[in-house]
Amino acid sequence: MSADLTADQLTADQLKAACLALNGAEETFPFGPETSVFKVGGKVFAISALDGLPLKVSLKCDPDLAVRLRADYPGITPGWHLNKRHWNTVLLDGSVPHRLVAELIEDSYDLIVAKLPRRQQLALDWPGLHPGEATEADRA
């Protein structure tokens, strides 16, 4: 990830840069100008009120990992106004290590891209793509 996530408290600009550094990522505002929704292939992978205090981001997560993360980090809670099985909300006040935040952003992105049709994965130059393997979207 190219965005610098080393400061004690993650800033809105760092969060935005981390999300937009991923291939094909775009920032949209379907819920109004106060809520940034980051998408890839038209699908949401991160949601944040970038001017919110404290700064938080909601990220898609593997359900089993989501439960473990919530147990290990008080700054990670079930997704706010989202499917709590598949989404976590992460408090960006320094209580969750920045390297972990970066990994969770990338994991959320990867969970979305993994469900996109192969042609979209190829266009994104997604490193998780395995040659000759059909995606769930291709099989549907």
From TrEMBL:
The keyword DNA-binding applies. One of its GO terms (molecular function) is DNA binding. PANTHER family: CYTOPLASMIC PROTEIN, CYTOPLASMIC PROTEIN-RELATED. Gene3D superfamilies: 3.90.1150.30. InterPro entries: YjbR, YjbR-like_sf, YjbR/MT2646/Rv2570-like. It comes from the Bacteria. This is Putative DNA-binding protein (MmcQ/YjbR family). Signal peptide: none annotated. It comes from Kitasatospora viridis. Pfam families: YjbR. Keywords: DNA-binding.
